[in-house]
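The records we work with from here on pair a chain with its fold. These numbers are not coordinates but entries in a learned vocabulary of local backbone shapes. To see the layout at work, look at the sequence and tokens printed below.
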Amino acid sequence: MRLISALCALLSATAVSSALAADAAVTGTIVLGQVAPFSGRSVKLAEEFNLGARTYFQALNERGGINGHRVEIRTRDDRYEPAETARLAKELIEQEGVFALFGTVGTGTTQAAVPVATAAGVPLFAPSTGAQTVRTPFNRQVFHVRAGYIEEADYIVEQLAVSSLRQIAVLHQNDAYGKAGLEAVSKAQEKRGLKIAAVADVARDATDMTEAAKKLMAASPQAVVMVASYTSSAALVKAMKRLGYAGQFVATSYVGGKSLADELGSDGTGIWISEVVPFPWSEGTALQREYNQALQRAGVPHRSFGSMEGYLAAKVFAEGLRRAGRDPTRARFITALESMQGWDAGGYRISYSPTDHGGTHRVEMTMIGPGGKFLH
């Protein structure tokens, strides 16, 4: 078994090395491929990320691009189905010749894209997931611009503990994302000598939360952490409030804060959401001011955490491309990114190295206020 595993690893490494060795320099437009759920219940997550990235690249192209290269994003809709992600990623690489895969959305879907990118020697940049399974073992093709779920869960549990809320229940959707989040919260609790009071799992995008609400209520939790889509999270909040629950609800960043706030209306007031990108409605840093000005110039009427993530991802990608020089190859791009240690994106630092592509560990808490406005 060990011999087979070692042989597979050697063959995989050889395939990547061969792909990188055959990597030709780009002489025109840099084309990125984004495979994400552009339809279905998770569509807002994909659309917001794409909007932020396109807004950045539009402004970049209007200034002449990077080293004379324009950047273009081509999209494919995987409907949040991993098998489709793998098929479409392969299609973009083989038929469209994309320079990199960019902004996959979801855990299971990103897991499906990683081996495709690895085999082709194509970078997979800024996947919108914090799952540890796409961070370890280390993969030189994959670069992150958001903190992982382990860091996010640890921050959530710490903030709850500071508020004397230690009796925690968890709702998670029964897929790779939900399981990764549950594991992260469990580890954060165990780190503090605590256990999760109750767990309820639901199908992705489920809206009937009757049984889940009863199960969680039975444990009398002081707080409920939701590792689920905004539709399921909103349904749980409403169901538990109908049963008289008055404790604290907390959602992870992947819920899509604006989508959750829109779905809940007045029921959303007071819900905490951990976030892994700068607060979009503030102009306290150069990055926040730049983002807001870019959206205004592009005629985009609203801000969101999702579009901020896409904007930040595009900006970091552009810096890597700038460092790769006038004749960028994928190999040069990867090496260039690995030189970005403590790079300042405008009040938000990104760090990569030859052995660490985590990017950042930053997590902060926000809250939905009256009228669906976010408080920071």
Q: What stands out?
A: The two ends are 52 Å apart (CA to CA). The longest strand covers residues 30-36.
